[in-house]
């Protein structure tokens, strides 16, 4: 083979190589496989907390408008943008919004999702227990409340729910211990003071009852039920002047209240003791 032919073959080989390289450089690169979060996200992008906040706001508005289908859609959109506890926090927000509008069934559904997403988050269990308490499901609520206080001893509503569950079962000593936890943790729950005071009064421990009622009144100063009960406890303890003052306070707050006539009668009778 001559030199001329060898040059031609070499030239053709180089040309073929250049064409192959050019073709590879112009080809569209393969698309990467989508991650699970990008598949789940209705919005574009893998992690977008700002869009999650937008969906949360829209979901709240949908709940207020009773548009449950839209609220559910926005909920899934919001959760898909978050991970772990932030996603559970969104579920908790929806649960609280549903509870505020009186839909306890939907609230319970969202609360269950909150504890499923973040089972070690006390706030989720606290809300779950509170919704169960509102539904009067005391036993299941007690289990949820125990989980909440095991994770965080400062969950005052869970302590109150435990107190209610124990009281329903007649375990008054355990109920009082739970109500004391509410007081010690600074929880402003008037009902805890009321229920603890009633237990003490039933045992004729009037001074303890007065202390419990006073705690309740710090949260609700004009609660007529607390005012009536503490007036009765003052009488039981023999604190006549305090009883007179509190009966007057009761009548000032609720002159036509359920115990108004009885309060006027007690005022007339106690005036003789002064």
Summarize the structure.
By secondary structure, the protein is mainly alpha-helical. It is about 75% helix and about 0% strand.
Word description of this protein:
With 274 residues, the chain is an all-alpha fold. Among the domains are: 45-119, no CATH class; 138-185, Tetratricopeptide repeat domain (Serine Threonine Protein Phosphatase 5, Tetratricopeptide repeat, Alpha Horseshoe), CATH 1.25.40. It contains 15 helices and no strands. α5 (85-100) runs antiparallel to α6 and α13 (224-237) runs antiparallel to α14 (240-253). The longest helix has 24 residues, at 3-26. It is elongated.
Main β-sheet: number of strands, strand sense, barrel status?
none
Report the helical percentage: over 70%
Task: Let me know the number of strands.
Answer: 0
Mean pLDDT: 80
Discrete helix count: 15
Tell me the β content: under 5%
Query: How are helices and strands ordered from N to C?
Result: HHHHHHHHHHHHHHH
Q: How far do the termini sit from each other?
A: 138 Å
Instruction: Tell me the radius of gyration.
Output: 33 Å
Main structural class: mainly alpha
Low-confidence stretches: 21-49
Could you say which overall geometry the principal axes of the C-alpha atoms support? elongated
List keywords for this structure.
274 residues; Serine Threonine Protein Phosphatase 5, Tetratricopeptide repeat; mainly alpha; single chain; 0% strand; 15 helices
